[in-house]
Design brief:
The structure holds 2 protein chains of 2 kinds. By secondary structure, chain A is α/β, with parallel strands linked by helices. Chain A has 2 domains: about 1-80 and about 180-255, Rossmann fold (3-Layer(aba) Sandwich); about 90-175, no CATH class. In chain A, about 35% of the residues lie in helices and about 25% in strands. In chain A, the strands form 2 sheets. A 6-stranded mixed sheet of chain A has the order 6-7-8-3-9-10, with helices on both faces. Chain B folds into 2 domains: about 15-160 and about 170-330, ABC transporter involved in vitamin B12 uptake, BtuC (Orthogonal Bundle); about 335-360, no CATH class. Helices cover about 70% and strands about 0% of the residues of chain B. Chain B is an all-alpha fold. Classes of the chains: A alpha/beta, B mainly alpha.
Chain lengths: ~260, ~350
C-alpha cells in the first residue's frame, strides 16, 4: 500500500530552485533511504515533504490525500514526524520535557480555551492529558534504555549520540505512521552510527515507515528496503536496496568503489 | 513514575549552591553592619527594593529576547505606560492602586499582543536590526504620547499614608514602599518559575526560545507562544512601572530612566535566561544602593551610585562574557582568565579531566 508519494516536486530556497522534479514513494512498513552527493537536494526533498519548504510545482500525497504545502503542525497531527539533521533537541529542556514537546500537538488542554488551536480536541480520540503524555513518555523511553536515568538531565548536556536518541524518542511520542529522518549519522562516531541505525530498524519494526536521508550510503542501504539516488535535484537511480548495492555503476559513483 | 519524580542530583546541587550564596551574603552583611554601623542595612533594603523592580522588568525584557531574538528598546516606555494606566485608574476612577495595577497588567498584556500583530510580526525573518529600530520608534511614540495626553507634570499615586516603621535607630522600613515592592518582586519570580517549569505553555516558550525552527517542526504553535511571550513581557513591564511610580513619582521618563539598568541586569545575568535576569537584577540593584555609604565614605557624592552597576557589569563581562547564568559558547570554554589564574595558582578541580577530554578529542 502506498503511504506517501511525492510526484514531480520542484522546490528550493527563495529564488534558488534545488529540486527539479523529484518523485518518490513510500509503502507501508518500509524503510526508504535517499542518498546522493552533497547538494543533490536530499534534505530539501524531505523538508518539502514535511511542509517546511513550499514546493513551486508537484504534489505530495499521504494515504491518498493531498498534503502539499500543509504546515508541519497539521502534518504532525496527521501522523508524520521529522527529525532534523542537527540541533534536533531543545538543549535547555530536560529529556522528559523534550519528549513532552513531541506530544504537544495532541495535548488536550485542561481548560477548554476558545483560542486553543489544537484542532479537533472533540473529534480526535487520540488527544492526551498530561498524565497520559507522561505515561507515553515512559513507554517511548523503554525503546531507549540508556536514556532512562537521564530523564531529568538537560538535553544540551548529553553526548551527541544520546541527543540523537532523544530526538528519535521525541519524534516517536505520537507513534507516527511515517518518520522522516535527515542524516541520523551526521557527526557521530562509527560505533554510535550502528546503534542509531539499529534503533531505526527497531522503530520500523514497531510499525512506523521510515524515510531516511543519508550520506553514509552503504550502511543506509544495508538497513533499507528501497533506495533513491538523487543527483543535482533529479532522480538518478531507484530500486531495491540490495540491487542498488550490487549495481556496479552505483557502487562506483556513490558507494566509494 | 517514581523514577521521574525523584529529587534529582541537579536540583540538589542548585539548592546547595543557593544556600551557600545566601549564607555568604548574610555573613557579608553582618560583617558590614558591625564595621560601618547598622545604617548599611537600610541601604541593603533600598538595594533589594530596586532589585525587585529591576528583576521584574529584566524578566520581561529577557523573555521577548529569548522568543523573538531582539532587544526591545520600547520596554522602558512600556513600563511608563503601565504606570500611567494604573495612575488613570487610581486618580480618575478613584480606585485603589491594587486595582490600578491589575487593570494596567491586563491592558499592557493586550498592548504587547497588539504590538506583535501590528508591527513585529511583519518584521519576522529580517534579522535583529529592523525590530530593534522599530522598538525605538515605538518607545518614542509611547513616551511622547504620554507627554501629549498627561502633560509632563509629575504625579504621585494615591496610596493610604503609612508612616515608616523604625526597627532600631537608623533602620526602618515602609510597609508599601519596601516590603510591598519586595513581596511583589518575589511573587513575580515564583510565578515565572512555575510558568516555565510546570506549565506546557512555559515549556513551549523555552523550547521556542531554544530553537524556533525545531519548535515549528515539532508542532508547537509558535504564534500562540509568541503572543504569550509578549503578554508576559508587557504585563511584567506594567508592574515594574507601577512599582517605580510607587517608590518615587510618576513622570513620562520613569521607565526610560531605568531602561539601561534593566539592560545591564539582563546582560549580567546572561541574555535570554529568566533565571539569569533574577541574578543580574540582584547584582545591579544591590550594587547601586549599597555603594552609597562607600561613596560617601570616600568623600564622593552619592549621585555617582548610578555608575556603579555598570562598573560591576563590565567586571562580570570580563570574567564571564556570557553572563552569570548564560550558556558559554562552545568555542570559548577555557580562554578566560579566571580559569587561567586558578590553573596557575595550583589547578582547579576537574582541570585534569578537562585536559584529558580535550586531548582525547
Amino acid at each position: 500500500m502506498i503511504l506517501l508519494e511525492a510526484q514531480n516536486l520542484h522546490s528550493g530556497y527563495g529564488e534558488m530552485e534545488i529540486l527539479h522534479g523529484v518523485s518518490m514513494r513510500l509503502d507501508s512498513q518500509e524503510i526508504v533511504t535517499i542518498i546522493g552527493p552533497n547538494g543533490a537536494g536530499k534534505s530539501t526533498l524531505i523538508k518539502t515533504i514535511f511542509g517546511l519548504l513550499r514546493p513551486t510545482a508537484g504534489q505530495v500525497t499521504f494515504k491518498g490525500l493531498d498534503i502539499t504545502g500543509k504546515p508541519p503542525r497539521d502534518l504532525v497531527l496527521d501522523g508524520l514526524a521529522y527529525v532534523p539533521q542537527s540541533n534536533n533537541t531543545f538543549p535547555s529542556l530536560t529529556v522528559l520535557e523534550n519528549l513532552e514537546m513531541g506530544a504537544i500537538t495532541r495535548r488536550a488542554s485542561p481548560i477548554p480555551m476558545p483560542w486553543n488551536r489544537s484542532r479537533g480536541s472533540a473529534t480526535s480520540p487520540r488527544m492526551m492529558n498530561d498524565s497520559q503524555i507522561r505515561r507515553r513518555a515512559i513507554e517511548t523511553i523503554a525503546l531507549f534504555p540508556n536514556l532512562r536515568p537521564k530523564l531529568r538531565e538537560r538535553a544540551g548536556n548529553l553526548s551527541g549520540g544520546e541527543q540523537q536518541m532523544v530526538a528519535l524518542a521525541k519524534s516517536m511520542m505520537l507513534d507516527p505512521d511515517i518518520l522522516l529522518i535527515d542524516e541520523p549519522s551526521a557527526g557521530l562516531a562509527p560505533k554510535l552510527v550502528d546503534m542509531v541505525f539499529s534503533k531505526i530498524v527497531e522503530i520500523n519494526g514497531s510499525g512506523t515507515s521510515v524515510v531516511m536521508v543519508e550520506q553514509n550510503a552503504k550502511k543506509a542501504l544495508a538497513i533499507a528496503n528501497r533506495g533513491y539516488i538523487l543527483e543535482t535535484g533529479r532522480n538518478r537511480y531507484e530500486g531495491a536496496a540490495k540491487e542498488l548495492l550490487q549495481n556496479t555503476d552505483v557502487a562506483k559513483l556513490y558507494l566509494g568503489g | 513514575m517514581r523514577e521521574v519524580l525523584r529529587f534529582t542530583p541537579r536540583s540538589r546541587r542548585q539548592l546547595l549552591r543557593a544556600l551557600i550564596v545566601t549564607t555568604i551574603f548574610v555573613i557579608f552583611l553582618a560583617a558590614l553592619a558591625t564595621l560601618f554601623g547598622i545604617t548599611i542595612l537600610q541601604y541593603t533594603l533600598a538595594g533589594f527594593r530596586l532589585s525587585s523592580i529591576v528583576i521584574v522588568a529584566a524578566i520581561g525584557l529577557t523573555v521577548i529576547y529569548g522568543i523573538r531574538g531582539f532587544a526591545n528598546f520600547a520596554y522602558g516606555d512600556l513600563m511608563t505606560l503601565g504606570a500611567y494606566v494604573a495612575l488613570f485608574v487610581n486618580m480618575n476612577m478613584a480606585l485603589s492602586l491594587v486595582w490600578g495595577a491589575i487593570v494596567s497588567f491586563v491592558v499592557l498584556a493586550l498592548v504587547g499582543i497588539l504590538l506583535e500583530v501590528l508591527i513585529f510580526a511583519r518584521l519576522e525573518g529580517r534579522g535583529p536590526v529592523p525590530p530593534i529600530v522599530a522598538s525605538v520608534g515605538v518607545g518614542l511614540i509611547v513616551q511622547n504620547g504620554i507627554r501629549a495626553v498627561a502633560t509632563t507634570q509629575q504625579w504621585i499615586f494615591r496610596v493610604p499614608f503609612i508612616p515608616e516603621i523604625p526597627i532600631v535607630p537608623g533602620l526602618g522600613f515602609h510597609w508599601i514602599r519596601d516590603l510591598g515592592t519586595v513581596a511583589v518582586g518575589l511573587a513575580f519570580m515564583i510565578s515565572v518559575h512555575i510558568l516555565l517549569t510546570y506549565t506546557n505553555l512555559g515549556k513551549a516558550m523555552r523550547a521556542t526560545a531554544d530553537n524556533l525552527e525545531l519548535a515549528k517542526a515539532t508542532g508547537i504553535d509558535t504564534k500562540l507562544v509568541t503572543y504569550a511571550a509578549w503578554a508576559v513581557s508587557c504585563s511584567f513591564a506594567s508592574t515594574a512601572g507601577v512599582l517605580l511610580g510607587l517608590i518615587g513619582v510618576v513622570s513620562p521618563v520613569i521607565g526610560f530612566n531605568v531602561l539601561l539598568l534593566v539592560f545591564a541586569a539582563v546582560i549580567v545575568g546572561g541574555i535570554g535566561s529568566p533565571y539569569g535576569a533574577v541574578l543580574g537584577g540582584l547584582v545591579i540593584g544591590l550594587s547601586q544602593e549599597m555603594s552609597v555609604p562607600l561613596l560617601l565614605g570616600l568623600g564622593a557624592s552619592s549621585a555617582y551610585k548610578v555608575a556603579i552597576p555598570f562598573i560591576v557589569m563590565i567586571a562580570v563581562l570580563i570574567l564571564r562574557p556570557w553572563g552569570i547564568a548564560g550558556r558559554p559558547p562552545p568555542f570559548a570554554r577555557r580562554v578566560f582568565f579566571i580559569e587561567k589564574i586558578l590553573d596557575a595558582i595550583g589547578g582547579r578541580p576537574g582541570a585534569a579531566q578537562d585536559a584529558e577530554r580535550e586531548s582525547g578529542g
